[in-house]
Amino acid sequence: xxxxxxxxxxxxxxxxxxxxxxxxxxxxxxxxxxxxxxxxxxxxxxxxxxxxxxxxxxxxxxxxxxxxxxxxxxxxxxxxxxxxxxxxxxxxxxxxxxxxxxxxxxxxxxxxxxxxxxxxxxxxxxxxxxxxxxxxxxxxxxxxxxxxxxxxxxxxxxxxxxxxxxxxxxxxxxxxxxxxxxxxxxxxxxxxxxxxxxxxxxxxxxxxxxxxxxxxxxxxxxxxxxxxxxxxxxxxxxxxxxxxxxxxxxxxxxxxxxxxxxxxxxxxxxxxxxxxxxxxxxxxxxxxxxxxxxx
Amino acid sequence: xxxxxxxxxxxxxxxxxxxxxxxxxxxxxxxxxxxxxxxxxxxxxxxxxxxxxxxxxxxxxxxxxxxxxxxxxxxxxxxxxxxxxxxxxxxxxxxxxxxxxxxxxxxxxxxxxxxxxxxxxxxxxxxxxxxxxxxxxxxxxxxxxxxxxxxxxxxxxxxxxxxxxxxxxxxxxxxxxxxxxxxxxxxxxxxxxxxxxxxxxxxxxxxxxxxxxxxxxxxxxxxxxxxxxxxxxxxxxxxxxxxxxxxxxxxxxxxxxxxxxxxxxxxxxxxxxxxxxxxxxxxxxxxxxxxxxxxxxxxxxxxxxxxxxxxxxxxxxxxxxxxxxxxxxxxxxxxxxxxxxxxxxxxxxxxxxxxxxxxxxxxxxxxxxxxxxxxxxxxxxxxxxxxxxxxxxxxxxxxxxxxxxxxxxxxxxxxxxxxxxxxxxxxxxxxxxxxxxxxxxxxxxxxxxxxxxxxxxxxxxxxxxxxxxxxxxxxxxxxxxxxxxxxxxxxxxxxxxxxxxxxxxxxxxxxxxxxxxxxxxxxxxxxxxxxxxxxxxxxxxxxxxxxxxxxxxxxxxxxxxxxxxxxxxxxxxxxxxxxxxxxxxxxxxxxxxxxxxxxxxxxxxxxxxxxxxxxxxxxxxxxxxxxxxxxxxxxxxxxxxxxxxxxxxx
Lengths: 295, 650
What we know:
Chain A has helices at about 10-20, 65-70, 105-120, 145-150, 165-170, 190-200, 245-265, 280-290, and strands spanning about 35-50, 75-80, 85-90, 125-130, 135-140, 180-185, 205-215, 225-230, 235-240, 270-275. By secondary structure, chain A is α/β, with parallel strands linked by helices. In chain A, the strands form three sheets. A six-stranded mixed beta sheet of chain A has the order 5-4-3-6-7-10, with helices on both faces. Chain A has a two-stranded antiparallel sheet with strand order 1-2. Chain A has a two-stranded antiparallel sheet with strand order 8-9. Residues about 1-5 of chain A have low confidence and may be disordered. Chain B is of the alpha+beta class. Chain B has twelve helices and 39 strands. An eight-stranded mixed beta sheet of chain B has the order 21-20-22-23-29-28-27-25. In chain B, strands 4, 7, 8, 9, 11, 12 and 38 form a seven-stranded mixed beta sheet that branches. A five-stranded mixed beta sheet of chain B has the order 30-36-35-32-33, with no helix packed on it. In chain B, strand 7 (about 135-140) and strand 8 form a beta hairpin. In chain B, helix 2 runs antiparallel to helix 4 (about 65-80) and helix 4 (about 65-80) packs antiparallel against helix 12. The radius of gyration of chain B is 35 Å and the shape is elongated. The interface between A and B is medium-sized, with 42 and 26 residues. Strand 8 of chain A pairs parallel with strand 2 (about 35-40) of chain B, so a sheet runs across the interface.
């Protein structure tokens, strides 16, 4: 499996990533000062409310206009700018390695690194988790990018696991809600898919689903009479197909993806379908901002 | 191809049954890779697809499968010990298709040509051989040529024989049969001809109980037997020869047009000779002469030419039997009833004699109408082409030019290494062995009277004819190359003494006349003869009116064969004007007195059988080593494919 190479992460791409910021629809409590508004009141740039002056308040925040109108001293309060808690969960099961040589896992990894870079350079705290493999303790600051790269390069997709259990385990250390990016092919039962999403919603995370599909997965790329094996579960199926099967397969796959989209839409979850043959620059710099994931 | 397969035999044919095990190979491949296994990211959706009618799995084996299969089949074939049975007998059949075979044989009761009789006889003879006999068919005219492929079955050989057609030329039956018999390729040579075989018996003649004699090492010596089938009966024929314009002076127009009419038959025969001239594409009758022909003795017919007849005109003579009720009854061959001649446009009568020893004309100036100039070789070498234009003929006596001149040339006793007719050797007391009876140079000549004390022998090039031969080579050769006539004589011809040495004098006059072309005598070009064409592209208009294109290369000049009698016109394809005979009219005649003499039963010399010194393989030729080789090759290829490096994973 190829490691994250210099391409597409060139210096100019990094510079472009630095201009971006993870968008959130809500305010979250952060753990420290960062670039996002939080529900905590504190120092920040966004005006929150007035409160009566109390001895010891910073007199620079006295609103003299209000005093002129009311003859009472009030100070302006601002929303505290806090860091955002970002969880980036990448499906590292065997299915992400098939079809071979079509770069599904590489795309997932590159997206994860790009998001992580944006978050780290923006002062956010980032959790990287290779579901089914390993988690990286929370990182913060631009200096952690190297560790992130090293972590994401450390494995290849293999094995099989229960998605819900792995997501639970990954999120066990996440006490503060924030933004959660879940990158997978989501080619498993819809019920299990929804269970994972429900769990993440229950943890009050703003969820982004990035579904990565290879181009040949959209077609029935098997020969009549072929014998197929699930790369993850090892389950084998002897196919009895004819030419109508190609159409059937396309319909069913579309329905599966639509079902996930539909659920995500109702749940307020952003769902983005990405093909593994797209350029990660196009995905991150164009499609993510267009979808409201980044700003 | 099928005939070749029919000769295959197997020493252990049951081994071929092992090929039935080939399906086992298919089974092993099916078992090894029963189905194509495909790993997919998820079977979740595939499991949901409705099951259709089960599809039969296609068997798509890799290339290695085919190599293994071929190797197995070849090994089975090799185990069957294939061999190819050599034919029991190899027979060469020579069909005489010369001019005489065109003769219609009325005496047979049917108007059947001798050729047709020969074909019938040959096909019948073929049917008397065993089915394993293989035949090769040849024709003998104008030279020995093979018809179709070698080693034909009886049916194929009969078909080839039935397609043989007669020519207008003489034959090479005698030399052809001798060549085939000596070749050690055939067990039997059958000559089918209207000529009788005159067999001479070889010393130590063997009884032909079989065609092979065992020698050591399992090989056998071949004996080739010669057999002759004679067809045809004596039948009368009228023919022409020696059409000539006899002029009173070499440089004058007019003269007498004369032709010799030959008759081969019994009693007397009346005939009518018609003379005509062709000029500008139109034929104008000059007159008819009736002649009476006596048994085996011809007659002369002649008319006076109008004084206005220009040199360069084409003259024609035609004879028909005066037996009006059945013209063909006294005239078996029609092709020899016409003759053409073309008189040359050159008639200057000036000769240059190049002689190192003498500066005299050596008696040539005594020939009426001929002027002679003499020069030594050194001065000749300094002369330019323009200087030689005024001469109608060059004679080199005891010397030769360094390259072939562009004027008609006679070489008398030239050096061996001359550039025109290379000499073979010199000999003393050579005996005359043969001569061409229909060449203009032997006209009116009693060749048998020649006696040679010292001669020089020539090796006649392809474009030339051996006119007179001694036992070991030619002493008089003549021919036309690049539009120029050349001749060489290997004995002393000069000085010209006229009536004192009549034989030499007649030959000298024949040479002068033929070379200069000022008075065409004799038969001109003959059917079956060839002319060499200069490099370039030529259009040759045939007597039939059809034009053929002939391309002559500098490295390999083309030789055009005169296959039919009549008037030919040869021009450059690019239409450049003729000069030095590069574009000209040629007359070709079917004058072969031996062929036309159909009332005389002629013969050809042959020995009855030839025992060859070299042994030859007989019986079977084994094939299994080749089959094993093929199997090993396929196995090697299969191994290379099996162990080729896998492509590196991306």
